[in-house]
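Thread: quick sanity check before group meeting

JM: Hey all, I'm pulling together slides for Thursday and realized we never actually wrote out the predicted structure for the chain we discussed last week. Dropping the sequence here so it's in one place. If anyone has concerns about the input, flag it before I start.
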Amino acid sequence: MSKLLLPRGYRNAELLSSRLQTQNEDQWMRRGEKRVLHLFHEMAERVPAYKDFLKAHKFSARNVHSIKDFALIPAIDKDNYLRKYPKEMLCWDGEFAHKQWVISTTSGSTGQPYYFPREYSQDWQYAISADLYLRSNFEIQSKSTLYIVAFPMGAWIGGLFTYEALKIVAENSKYNLSIITPGVHKQEVISAVQQLGGSFDQIIIGAYAPFLKDILDDGVRQGVAWAAYDIGFVFSAEAFTEQFRDYIFSTIRPRNELRSTLNHYGTVDLGTMAHETPESVMIRRRLVRQNALDALFPERIKQPTFAQYNPELFYFEARDNNLFCTAYSGLPLVRYDLKDYGGVLKRSTVHEQLRKSQDFNVQKEAQNAQIADTLWNLPFLYVYERNDFSVSYYAFLIYPDSIRRALQESKITSLATGKFTMLVDYDEAGRQKMHIHIELKHGLTPSKKTELLFQSLLHQRLGEEVSEYRETAKVVGDVVKPVIHLWPYEDPTHFRVGAKQKWVQK
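JM (edit): ok, ran it. Output follows.
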């Protein structure tokens, strides 16, 4: 295992968890700063593409001595760095073909797919993070566990990366952990729960949120009593609302809501970089209930993924509401522009802001919620939709999050699965039209009446949340309303079974 990818002291999750609780946040930040400075200088010396990139930008590595200097290093992204150089030049010492990789691909949702090589030590890195939250959230050390990997198992990172990490956790511990990998085959996931679930103390399902909702709904139709199991969920890939989490809770009835679900923030570029903790879930749910998201975040209505990260493994920066990350990986990356709208917050700042603006004592509330044993002294990040996951409509942007919340209105939750695809094109008169393709629940058929109901509710929601939409509607009238297209359940045109949902079509 590469000594560069995994720092010392990361082989024992129990001891590491103790350190996360006892060492203060500033210590973890300093460890992260020291490590990224070392990574930068190693890359400037040993990665041919990065050496050329710095030369082209007339930037000398000799000028970087402190974290303040580090912030002046030119940022890299897919276009100015990854796609500009051949794979060999992007690797340590220019070596690609004569190493051992597992290669994953992006989904291609923002352009041509890109292939990222991953080393075994990255599996270990994810395994350590997984081990930590399996202990803190799901008490895996004291419960026999069936983990159902329901992420895609093809060339994408989610399924195989999760499986490899879980195998490492199982093989290097005494946990009673079993794994099954049905991937995105819903019936196989449901069958695994029905046939195997009763043999274990708990079940954990790892899945993308829209796919998980399908699993639960299909299971209910087949008579699965989800609440009869001690069941938890691990999500990834995209944000979801607290209304969605409430729907999950109403179906599974967990013993502790703050421990039973968590969402990853990760990319194929760098792997799993951060994840929700019981503390971050508690804070977000409290702010949503009080309509006070702007006490911490720049948006009043949109609900960002809110997670904690370890700066020693993934060092985050924010500039102009844009996230950058630095980390050792198959292709090492320094100040990599993730193209994600978000920011970073020190934990001490979060606690202070909440105490002053909301009279919210996080430590006290954690005690009351019985999650005090899960608190870690790590900083937070928040992330909204990707910067390029939106449609431009009348010169302003519409993000999927607004549509997602509208589809969770009580009037229509019995009609729609929550999946949709949005796009903007032009009619014969040259006027822009926003089209929203919506998947109906199993057994329902499209009708004009249902179309109009969806259009009315979506028009109302967009007017409430998007000021530019509201003002445009005042000027141009009903022509601004979205065009609704209803599709039967699992219609392959926009809702192909097993595919990752494409919220935006460009």
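AS: nice. The longest helix spans residues 25-46. The mean pLDDT is 91.
JM: adding both to the slides.
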